[in-house]
Amino acid sequence: MGNQNNDKLLEMTIPQLLRWRVATTGDKVALREKDFGCWNSYTWAQYYEYTRNTGLGLREIGFAKDDKIAIISDNIPEVLYVAIGAQAVGGISAGIYQTSLPHEIAQILEYLEVTIVFCDDQEQVDKLVEIRDKIPAVKKVIYEDPRGMRGYQSDSWFMFIDDLCKLGAEAHQVDSNSFEALVDAGQPDDACHLCLTSGTTGLPKGSILTHRNYINMGLQLTACDPLEDTDEYVSFLPFAWIGEQMNSFGVAMATGITLNFPESVETSMEDLKEIGPHFMFGAPRIYETIRSQIWLKIDESYWLNKVVYNYFIKIGEQAAGYRMSGREMPRKLKVLSWLGKQILFRPLVNQIGLLRLRRAYTGGAALGPELFTFYQAIGVNLKQIYGQTEIVGIAYMHRDGDVRPDTVGKPLPGTECRISEEGEILSRSLSVTQGYYKLDEKTAELLEGGWLHSGDAGYIDDNGHLVVIDRVSDVMHNDKGEMFSPMFLENRLKFSPYIKEAVIYGDKREFVAALINIDPIVVGKWAEDKGVSYTTYMDLSAKPEVAELVKGEVDKINANAEKVHFKIKRFGILYKLLDMDDGELTKTGKIRRKFVKEKYQNLYDALYEPDTTEKQVEAFYQYQDGQTTKVDTTICFYTMDIR
Amino acid sequence: MTQLSIENVTLTFGGLHALSEVNLTIEPGLITSIIGPNGAGKTSLLNCISGFYHPTKGDIYYGKRCLTHASPHTVSNMGIARAFQNLELFSGLSVLDNLLLARHQNLRYNFFQAVFYFGKAAREEARNRAYVEEVVDFMELEPYRKKMVGNLSYGVQKRVEVARALTLAPDLLLLDEPMAGMNIEEKEDIVRFIIDIQKERGSTVVLVEHDLGVVMDISDVIYVFDFGELIGSGTPAEVAKNPKVIEAYIGEE
């Protein structure tokens, strides 16, 4: 495909591009969904037909141009039929996280002026029932899975998706040109989707994204990393996140690859093995989990396996060092790394289903440098990307053979990058949003001077790679006015396999301190091996042996600290994992700093009382049914030996 | 029409009366619960229905057919399935194999067809697998499909046990303490499954359960047993007011 083709695609809307795909590769499989244990395929032609029926059906129930439809669903093909169907008739789609609580959903629906909601199952429908009187603007709720919906069938507020499609199909029979005319009427610069930015504070903001925004992103990404239209992608990220939309709207439409939908959220990793995708995208957590699983399996394996693994992983890491920087390998290393690949790494990677993978992208948060080396060593081409919702997810990316773990790579073609005087990263491209929905002031700040203000502090290094430090607003200063980045230090801690999550404190204080969450699986296994018995996560966290282990890890990090004031002087091990449901993390897994600090104020105070070695705390647990239990526990605090 | 009727059933082991003169009926499409203190005869009654025990006196009718002396496999062929209190699964087989195995009696092909896996044999196996997959979906067992049963958590094994009974496509499902040993969340799930089994699959459910809260919530009819005797019956509200039941079950004030 040449540039000419790209220019043509950039002039299309997503529904127009879908129609164009039907004309070029109509019989090729576009979507595949696992259901009842079988993979069911849908061609581009069927994809278009379903989308048409859904779109026309929506129109029949009063969904008009510029109306909004919200989607609260796990990843299933119907999500795309509904979203693109709505876009085809001139509407705007919006995704809401499945984990959202009812009152959050109510706020979002009201803010985005949503008139129709699509839910996948009873779980989501029940949330809407709960807030029904708060969302008078919502005219219809469409559901996909009739299971458990028997009580709602007599209520006309609810509608089964098959009934909607039937309406659409009938409308198409009456006038077979109406849908084509609606698709033709779309303009590439029309808003097509409102993507919620999770925001570490307050209500999410809806970024207005256009057809061209998405298609441009897909084209520019694949200009660097080409994909064949026979390639496979497994759709397992939440649809409400830009990371999924950029693939299902942007990349899939721009390249014609096949999207695969797992059977359920729990089976997605198993289903991924069956598909063997050619590229994948995920938050760091996914890659950390996969590596932990490999480590655990190797650890449980018999001695010969361990010896072979431990030998070749070192060879692999050395070879990866050369490969990532594009240098020529010495002959001996080349032979050994080839051998390692054949006898160990290929079968290993095949076991996790990534053998066909050409590229894996990580984004959303920082990933430990040794993780890059690890994945490159076993032959998975893992690369960092960087971008925001407001620029359709990816704007910067490592190029093959130039993977530097401390950077986020170079801008995509057509993306301009500038660093402001305050050190903020600014970008400009065809993928930049038109602004936030109904938030003119915020939009003006975001797009001041025609550049997208990322809110991240960063710089461009000598190789032309962008380096991201932290959120401009999150950078902290100690009492001597020396600057440090809490996220940077937290990531250092999280790079240890034993540490799952960490919160760094030290703003306007005399030193840096941390609250640490141990990793339940890795530390659990470690405790088992050491013969340390424990019952719950809380119990494990409070073990003195575990404290020693963490102390050792913090020592290592302190030894490598670039500056003296980066060193962590005191820490405590938190008795519970930070969690989204408790409001401590955002939906994308970032720490809500202010909330966490207030919630654990007593622990924060204790961290800065050098004489306090332990503190009694009351932990509250809330069950699903709203009951709470109180547990008393003791938290110990440890002071590190630093100069 | 009454689906199952138990008429004057007495079951004795030597001198011990496990059940004495029990009369009750199970109506189609309802959730009927059987409650009572330990040793009240609840499981003995289920054993009589499913053919593991045969009543010493009295008769059991399923529709018009007499089950009094039927063997367990005849009972299951009639459309009565049972999930056991103590898991009766093959712990060394996968979830899928356990479920497929439960349907062996529904397979209709001969030895030669089976040897060559040809024609009818392949079709029948595919049909069975499709049915089992439908149950897997219904009981939300997808993540465990290929896992060995012995390695699964107790709560999931309980779900497999219920699923195994469901693969027989029963008209009458006997559940023996499906919630024993579960945490709140697992219980909520099982309750949802039981209601769905009744409402969406149209099976009649007989539930033996200790958790009174659950029983009062979901039952249409409750029978209360004590020392092998039926001491009360009715809707949850009626049973809750019955002084004999309160005395036997909750104890005297």
Question: Topology, please?
Answer:
The complex is a heterodimer of chains A (643) and B (253).
Chain A: H1 3-10, H2 14-25, E1 29-35, E2 38-43, H3 44-60, E3 68-72, H4 77-88, E4 92-95, H5 102-112, E5 114-119, H6 122-130, E6 140-143, E7 158-160, H7 161-174, H8 178-185, E8 191-197, E9 205-210, H9 211-224, E10 232-234, H10 242-255, E11 258-261, H11 268-275, E12 279-282, H12 284-300, H13 303-324, H14 331-351, E13 359-362, H15 369-377, E14 382-386, E15 396-397, E16 410-411, E17 416-419, E18 424-428, E19 435-436, H16 440-446, E20 452-460, E21 466-471, E22 476-477, E23 483-484, H17 486-494, E24 499-505, E25 512-518, H18 520-530, H19 537-541, H20 544-559, E26 568-573, H21 593-599, H22 601-607, E27 614-622, E28 628-639
Parallel strand pairs in A: 1-11, 3-4, 3-5, 4-8, 5-6, 6-7, 10-11, 12-13, 13-14, 25-26
Antiparallel strand pairs in A: 1-2, 8-9, 9-19, 14-15, 15-16, 17-18, 18-20, 20-21, 22-23, 24-25, 26-28, 27-28
Helix pairs in contact in A: 2-3, 2-10, 3-4, 3-7, 9-10, 13-14, 13-15
Chain B: E1 4-13, E2 16-26, E3 31-35, H1 42-49, E4 57-62, E5 65-66, H2 72-77, E6 80-83, H3 95-102, H4 111-116, H5 120-138, H6 154-166, E7 172-176, H7 184-199, E8 204-208, H8 212-218, E9 221-226, E10 229-234, H9 236-241, H10 243-250
Parallel strand pairs in B: 3-8, 3-9, 6-7, 7-8
Antiparallel strand pairs in B: 1-2, 1-4, 4-5, 9-10
Helix pairs in contact in B: 3-6
Quick overview of this protein structure:
The complex is a heterodimer of chains A (643) and B (253). Chain A is of the alpha/beta class and 643 residues long.
Write a concise keyword list for the protein shown above:
heterodimer; A: 643 residues; alpha/beta; Rossmann fold; GMP Synthetase, Chain A, domain 3; 5-stranded mixed β-sheet; 40% helix; globular; B: 253 residues
Description:
The complex is a heterodimer of chains A (643) and B (253). Chain A has 643 residues and is of the alpha/beta class. Chain A folds into three domains: 3-221 and 238-265, Rossmann fold (3-Layer(aba) Sandwich), CATH 3.40.50; 282-436 and 445-471, Rossmann fold (3-Layer(aba) Sandwich), CATH 3.40.50; 477-639, GMP Synthetase, Chain A, domain 3. Helix content of chain A is 40%, strand content 22%. In chain A, the strands form six sheets. Chain A has an eight-stranded mixed sheet with strand order 7-6-5-3-4-8-9-19, with helices on both faces. In chain A, a hairpin with a 2-residue loop joins strand 1 (29-35) and strand 2. The radius of gyration of chain A is 26 Å and the shape is globular. Chain B has 253 residues and is an alpha/beta fold. Chain B has two domains: 1-79 and 170-253, 3-Layer(aba) Sandwich (Rossmann fold), CATH 3.40.50.300; 91-168, no CATH class. In chain B, 38% of the residues lie in helices and 24% in strands. In chain B, the strands form two sheets. A six-stranded mixed sheet of chain B has the order 6-7-8-3-9-10, with helices on both faces. A four-stranded antiparallel sheet of chain B has the order 2-1-4-5, with helices on one face. In chain B, helix 3 runs parallel beside helix 6 (154-166). The model of chain B has no long low-confidence stretch (mean pLDDT 89). Classes of the chains: A alpha/beta (643), B alpha/beta (253). The interface between A and B is medium-sized, with 15 and 18 residues.
